[in-house]
Amino acid sequence: MNILKYKIGYLIFSLIVLIPGIVSLLVFGLNLSIDFAGGSLVKYSVPKEVVADVISSVYKGNDVVLEGVSKENDTTVVIRTKPLDVHLNSKINDELKKVNKDISQVSFETVGPVVGKETTKNAFVSLFWASLGILLYIAYAFRNIPSPYSSLKFGASAIIAMLHDAFLVLGIFSILGHFAHVEVDALFITAVLTVIGFSVHDTIVVFDRIRENLNKLPKSWQFETIANYSLVETLNRSLATSLTVIFTLLALYILGGSSIKNFVLALLIGIVSGAYSSIFTATPILVLWESKKTRK
What we know:
By secondary structure, this protein is an alpha+beta fold. It has two domains: 3-33 and 114-290, Up-down Bundle (Multidrug efflux transporter AcrB transmembrane fold), CATH 1.20.1640.10; 39-110, ACT domain (Alpha-Beta Plaits). It is 68% helix and 10% strand. The chain is built from ten helices and four strands, in the order H-H-E-H-E-E-H-E-H-H-H-H-H-H. A four-stranded antiparallel sheet has the order 2-3-1-4. The longest helix is centred in the C-terminal third of the chain and has 33 residues, at 223-255. The two termini are 26 Å apart. The mean pLDDT is 87.
């Protein structure tokens, strides 16, 4: 099976898949939750006949700046505002009780703007250090690779594939945030870091087999032939591992609670992308990078 026969096509497909998400990120950005943007998020349980405007009018009457008002379902209204203090929140709740005694507050979360900025900064810092650590680790782990091949190129190829998966998740959530109002919260960062780890883990399995075969297979074989042979050897294992995780995440997404749906969705997108990129992105990049070298 000559998997790498269409290596250029795989890379073009990877790029095409990324373009809508990158455009969305540049134009719309991410729909940040209060974890990053700061503010207050208040949920109310209301009778079906009560419209969201009834609650928003009470907030406006108390000079509160509203950033979003929506109905999560028939009996739940979600209010997003600038940071509220506890006393003002209590006052608004008392006024809402006078409007309709069946209106009750389900949850009240407040994050200050300073905390939100610090969370955003820490998220980017963690992604940077994770990428750097993975690059250095792979370069060290593959330090005994035979000449003239470079362990740094193995590491860089894995990082490119990893960033492909991360940007795909970010891009899709940017699109969902603009059109479906899906928010990015702290759990999303956890999901992205998990995706990065899975992507690199799957790629290292393939790269490690390439490293072994560089020493085992006939010296006359070209690097692309050895890489393709290694891919075929690890294909069943990679697919079995990825499908096991994908089936588990699908069950969680379908049957799990609403509080983890976005987290599971981010994982699901990333794991599918990671399964693809480890075979059809990382290895083709490495092969194209090393294609001019022949083993002597």
